[in-house]
């Protein structure tokens, strides 16, 4: 045997050892217990089935679930935005927060049509699409 073949054999043994240790660590993290399995013939000779049966823990009773909270809907009149109101400042601030420069954000905001300005959400979405396209017209 040469030194190179011994080196390759040792590296292979180290890899196998690391794999076994990683598997043991993963089983421990998952909470699995290591148990020795006997051969199926030995189990059958002792009257046990060939398949291992693991005990199942009964689930703990859960506390009664609270009903989910439903968010209050805002009246539609409050979310309406007219051109020239302070809603434009919110749209520009949202676009600046998203990473666009303020002049580009303002140009995209004021380039939206009146239909796109009906709600603050639509206005922000339309202005964001304009910024993403790069076309401010």
Features:
single chain; mainly alpha
Sum this structure up briefly:
The protein has 137 residues and is mostly helical. The protein has 6 helices and no strands. Among the domains are: 1-32; 80-133, no CATH class.
Describe this structure in words.
- By secondary structure, this protein is mainly α.
- Among the domains are: 1-32; 80-133, no CATH class.
- Helices cover 53% and strands 0% of the residues.
- It is built from six helices and no strands.
- Helix 4 (87-97) crosses helix 5.
- It is elongated and about 80 Å long.
- Mean pLDDT is 75; it is low at 75-83.
How are the elements arranged and paired?
Blueprint: H1 3-30, H2 40-45, H3 76-79, H4 87-97, H5 102-110, H6 120-133
Helix pairs in contact: 4-5, 4-6, 5-6
Q: Report the average pLDDT across residues.
A: 75
The rounded distance between the terminal residues' Cα atoms is 77 Å
Q: Tell me the helix content.
A: 40-55%
Number of helices: 6
Radius of gyration: 33 Å
Low-confidence spans: pLDDT under 50, at least 5 residues? 75-83
- Overall morphology: elongated
Number of strands: 0
Main sheet makeup: none
Structural class by SSE content: mainly alpha
């Amino acid at each position: 045997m040469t030194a190179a073949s011994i080196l390759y054999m040792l590296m292979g043994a180290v890899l196998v050892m690391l794999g076994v240790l990683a598997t043991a660590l993963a089983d421990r993290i998952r909470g699995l217990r290591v148990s020795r399995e006997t051969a199926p013939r030995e189990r059958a000779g002792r009257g046990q089935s060939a398949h291992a049966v693991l005990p199942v823990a009964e689930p703990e009773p859960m506390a009664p679930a609270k009903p989910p909270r439903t968010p209050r809907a805002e009246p539609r009149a409050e979310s309406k935005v007219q051109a020239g109101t302070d809603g434009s400042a919110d749209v520009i601030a949202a676009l600046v927060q998203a990473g666009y420069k303020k002049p580009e954000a303002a140009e995209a905001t004021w380039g939206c049509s009146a239909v796109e300005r009906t709600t603050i959400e639509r206005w922000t979405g339309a202005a964001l699409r304009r910024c993403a396209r790069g076309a401010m017209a």
